[in-house]
């Protein structure tokens, strides 16, 4: 079976995908933005191949997530599910970028570049 890393897998579609893929026998690496979000999926994370923690709004934490995934091993697929919601005013990431879909695309590119597949 495949080894799959899913960003934003603490709720919604990411969590549903993780549950389905694990039930089908795939080795899944989960991602949570924070330890608090990780605690919310403790019932599924114990059966996962791994759990990585970091906020994708931060370039530093994005690199850390890639390092955590690489420490687990090569992935056959990455599901970029994590998203950044739109704010009423122009929010900024910790790195000073606009907190919008453009930042989400940049994060996906940065992760693809750093995660060994």
Fold blueprint:
Elements: E1 3-6, H1 12-23, E2 27-32, H2 35-39, H3 42-45, E3 50-53, H4 59-72, E4 77-79, H5 101-114
Structural description of this entry:
This protein has 117 residues and is an alpha/beta fold. Helix 4 runs parallel beside helix 5 (101-114). It has helices at residues 12-23, 35-39, 42-45, 59-72, 101-114, and strands spanning 3-6, 27-32, 50-53, 77-79. The longest helix is centred in the middle third of the chain and has 14 residues, at 59-72. Strands 3-2-1-4 form a four-stranded parallel beta sheet, sandwiched between helices. 42% of the residues lie in helices and 15% in strands.
Radius of gyration: 14 Å
What is the helix tally? 5
Distance between the termini: 15 Å
Shape: globular
Structural class: alpha/beta
Biggest β-sheet: strands ordered side by side in the sheet: 3-2-1-4
Question: Biggest β-sheet: count, sense, barrel?
Answer: 4 strands, parallel
Strands, count = 4
Name the helicity range.
40-55%
Low-confidence stretches: none
Strand content: 5-15%
Q: What sequence of helices (H) and strands (E) makes up the elements?
A: EHEHHEHEH
Mean pLDDT: 84
Compact summary:
The protein is α/β, with parallel strands linked by helices. It has five helices and four strands.
List the keywords:
5 helices; 117 residues; 42% helix; alpha/beta; four-stranded parallel beta sheet; 15% strand; single chain
């Amino acid at each position: 079976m495949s080894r799959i890393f899913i960003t934003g897998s603490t709720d919604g579609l990411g969590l549903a995908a993780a549950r389905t893929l694990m039930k089908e026998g795939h080795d899944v690496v989960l991602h949570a933005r924070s330890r608090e979000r990780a605690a919310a999926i403790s019932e599924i994370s114990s059966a996962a191949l791994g759990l990585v923690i970091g906020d994708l709004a931060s370039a530093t934490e994005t690199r850390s997530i890639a390092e955590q995934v690489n420490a687990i091993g090569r992935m056959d697929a990455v599901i970029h599910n994590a998203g950044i919601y739109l704010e009423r005013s122009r929010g900024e990431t910790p790195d000073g970028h606009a907190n919008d879909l453009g930042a989400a695309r940049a994060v996906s590119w940065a992760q693809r570049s750093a995660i060994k597949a």
